[in-house]
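Example 4.3 (complexes with small molecules)
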Amino acid sequence: MPRILITGSLGQIGTELSEKLREKYGKENIICTDLRAPKNNNCDPFYTLDVLDTVSFEHIISSNDIDWLIHNASILSATGEKDPHLAMRVNFRGFDNAIELARKYNLRIISPSSIAAFGPSTPRVNTPDNTVMRPNTIYGVSKVYVELLGEYYNHKWGTDFRTLRYPGIISYKTPPMHGTTDYAVAIFHEALKNKKYESFLKEDMLLPMMYMPDCLKATIGLLEVDSSRLKQRSFNVSGMSFNPEQISDAIKKYIPEFQISYNPDYRQEIAEGWPNSLDDTAAREQWNWKPEYDLDAMVVDMLGNLSDILDIPFDKK
Ligand SMILES: NC(=O)c1ccc[n+]([C@@H]2O[C@H](COP(=O)([O-])OP(=O)(O)OC[C@H]3O[C@@H](n4cnc5c(N)ncnc54)[C@H](O)[C@@H]3O)[C@@H](O)[C@H]2O)c1
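Answer. The structure with nicotinamide-adenine-dinucleotide bound is encoded below.
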């Protein structure tokens, strides 16, 4: 069994990924860490770790006999634009620490990238893996840095670095709070609670998205594939693409009285620099990636699960 360390493990993705990995590899083999302390002891073994603290980061790796590192600690797009210097520290220096420790301890390392690594001059439709990457947000710049430095470590020292460019991730267990695609989660909470939602993106802002079960499937798929099968180290992964109007229409099939209104803010400008859809042929060919959820399947699953959590009745029909 590999022993796996996760940074930023209390985040939207880390919470569900660590749960899935515990089921697969055994609780004792998944070592969770985050800047914050957990609210319960479901995450044990757990260490409080700031990824900028190199000494503690190294100590946790060496004393826990780690094989694989999932480096999820990051400042996301919306928070990054509010505090670019914080994003520079955590996303650049934090990754420097993670990749250097991966080299030193011969770890397999996954550090997620994002569609934010692309930019306004990137071809937006069916965006390929290799294309123009000139992002205009600090978050996007940090993701290009992760990809290029990780690939350099792989080429120079053979460090087993891998990354996937997640689209916006939709989930019901842990609310996302810091990203530009978070509207696609908030809309479900508001649809169930208040039957209306004010979108901070325009009605036709088409973006690539992915439901959490597919995000976990993609991450574990890339984590587990034998290194010899990889012809590249950075991969697009695609789930579905929709705009606020289309997700609103999909929700109305189940909650007919639901109403959406639009009041775009600074996040609209961030989203305008991102692709509409992704070409993920290489992921499909090299490690058999295939998503399971389209828009309708995701909407019905989200509404069903969230209505249980919020204790609001919902008729699946
Ligand atoms: N959620 C998405 O839609 C999405 C999309 C594309 C890429 N990603 C990437 O996936 C990864 C995980 O994202 P997420 O959605 O779980 O993010 P999140 O914001 O929900 O969680 C990030 C976690 O990192 C922790 N953290 C922040 N600064 C830290 C530090 N200095 N040291 C240690 N921990 C620190 C936070 O406490 C938080 O728990 C990130 O690299 C993110 O950029 C996420």
